[in-house]
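Appendix C reproduces, verbatim, an entry submitted by the partner laboratory led by Prof. M.T., so that reviewers can inspect both the input and the predicted structure.
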Amino acid sequence: MSLNFDFGVWDLALMLAVSAQATWLAYVHSPRMKAILYSLPVPFTLASLSLGQPIDVTHVMGLPLVFLYTNGVRWLHVNRRVPIVVSILAGALAHCGIGMVLARWVPVTETSFWAAMAVVVVVSIGLYATMPHRAEPGHRSPLPIPVKFSLILVIISGLIVIKHLLRGFMASFPMVGLVAAYEARNCLWTLGRQVPALMLGMCPMLGICHVAQQWWGLKVGLAAGWVVFLLVLAGLSRRLWTVEAVDGGDLEGGRAV
């Protein structure tokens, strides 16, 4: 595997779409809305098409890395008082490093795919059920949109260059999370708590893609997977506006709203 400097149509689509999604997230104030936007697998979809490789075990094993990245950044910044930019950089480098090692050594088989899927589902259910709600303050980016958009383009371009080294871990890389963690630095718990819902939505999506791609190709598999993903995510994210609204959703000026 080598570095990629030949950007195709899907690479360009990935750069533009992720930049737009991350910029949108940056200018949303509500922590709950930031968490929802962070959950949408636009980067995964376009990165998978950019890679052009079948959905396999590396895509599944990338999901726990998203959780580790998001909550690792929170732990470094909130618990250890590490500056947010340094925390994000450490999380991104850890994700890439672990992904490259696993992509090289994990056997790509049917057994490994479904075994990894079962483990991720069980772990995700446990995390979803045990991470409590916390009301946190919102934040809206003060940077002009062109500046924010340009910075994101540079970051995604670098990721595309090393995509073949990461394989399926490139598709699960928290591209939007690089910006999301910075913009949600005051509500990182809310962001991290949404990741188990993302993982539970992605598991059936990956399963459908994995099966469907054998008969109808990756594009049809991804389209079918999106339908199931949105249904699962909608059900799991209702607590953000129902049960938690009773306890107070977001904080505004020190009070719950």
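Residues 253-257 have pLDDT under 50 and may be disordered. Additional entries are available on request from the coordinating office.
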